[in-house]
Specification:
CATH architecture: Alpha-Beta Barrel
CATH class: Alpha Beta
Number of helices: 11
Strand content: 5-15%
Structural class: alpha/beta
Order of helices and strands: EHEHEEHEHEHHEHHEHEEHEH
CATH topology: TIM Barrel
Number of domains: 1
Distance between the termini: 9 Å
Length: 350
């Protein structure tokens, strides 16, 4: 079977039907068969419906979906779930600030935003995955996309808690504390290793419960459900309570990141993922295709700072050798055409 070839994309710069047509034509000409199109941003809110319109009669989100369908390319609505912009929060969050995560010192993200310790410019609000009201708010947005656009699926991103760059500080909201006390009998926050292991289980279950709910919504609408997840499941569980080996049972496609890694590491990551997810869940890792170097360090055998089309191709091949069903390119909106051409040639050769 031909590997899936996907790209992440936003509506940025799509200001006319002609520009939408150019984007879709480029994707079609280079073998792209799946577009993950941003529907809810982590900072700027919704990107579909009235929020998407450039003018009263032009909706770039809708135009890209329509033209992609005509070209035989699938479109999956991409939702950044739990982060929100402190300067431009959603109407739901304005009415329900209790949905925000709370740190171990009792401070809500409204008082002390996530990542604010790194620098004010990184300050972000995060909603706790335990908040069922916000979960249903997100489900309603997914329903609106499926009702109004001919999308093929719902794609979940930021389906987790914020990385623990400031220590294990989240989440100690009333909901999480009450659940922990009711199920384990302990009070939070705790300074005991064993108690904190139990706490990790509760946090992971909050996230997995969310995935199950969103899967129900997508499948009720006759659509696929997929998720973009942390590179390996050990890091995912420890850093942000994302137990994707478990919640992959609710997905049709899993998309772990293979950013800035060596081909050997990409194959290892893919092989490990394939070994822990159900056979019913397809595996399409997300490959960094920009020229940025953010994580890799010289001297580390699992990293690579190379950013050529040949490097991207080597990662794609490594993922396929590791058991993937295809791959997706990231960075959206700026993937070089020469990378698309190289991968297209490789796909056609298989």
């Amino acid at each position: 079977m031909r590997p899936t070839f996907g790209v992440y994309m936003t509506t940025q710069g799509v200001t006319s039907p002609e520009k939408a047509g150019h984007v879709v034509t480029e994707c079609s000409n280079h073998g792209v068969d799946r577009i993950y199109l941003l529907a809810k941003d982590k900072g700027q809110g919704l990107r579909f419906g009235d929020r998407s319109k450039v003018s009263s009669d032009f909706d770039p989100f809708g135009e890209l979906v329509k033209m992609s369908v005509e070209a035989g390319i699938q479109v999956h609505a991409w939702f950044c779930l739990y982060p929100e912009d402190p300067l431009h929060p959603s109407d739901y969050l304005k009415e329900h600030p209790e949905a925000l995560i709370v740190n171990r010192h009792g401070k809500s993200n409204k008082e002390q935003p996530a990542w604010s310790g790194i620098g004010p410019q990184y300050s972000t609000w995060w909603v706790c995955a335990s908040h069922e009201g916000y979960r249903e708010y997100l489900a309603s947005l997914m329903g609106k996309v499926m009702e109004n656009y001919e999308v093929d699926g719902i794609h979940l991103d930021y389906v987790r808690y914020p990385e623990e760059v400031e220590g294990r500080t989240y989440c100690y909201c009333e909901r999480c504390r009450a659940r922990f006390k009711g199920e384990y009998g302990y009070e939070l926050p705790a300074n005991d290793v064993i108690k904190n292991r139990y706490y990790v289980s509760i946090m992971c279950e909050n996230v997995s419960d969310s995935v199950r709910r969103f899967s129900e919504v997508a499948r009720a609408g006759g659509r696929e459900i997929s998720a973009y997840v942390f590179t390996d499941y050990v890091t995912a569980i420890e850093a942000c309570y994302q137990d994707w080996p478990h919640f992959s049972r609710y997905l049709d496609v899993l998309c772990p990141t293979v950013y800035e890694v060596s081909p050997e590491q990409a194959k290892r990551i893919t092989d490990r993922a394939r070994s822990v997810i159900p056979s019913s869940c397809r595996l399409t890792p997300a490959i960094m295709s920009s020229d940025e170097v953010l994580r890799s360090r010289e001297g580390g055998s699992r990293w690579s700072s190379e950013r050529t089309p040949a490097y991207v191709l080597s990662i794609a091949k490594a993922c396929l050798d590791g058991g993937s069903d295809g791959y997706i390119l990231f960075l959206y909106d700026s993937t070089p055409v020469d990378v698309l051409e190289v991968l297209h040639d490789e796909i056609m050769a298989r």
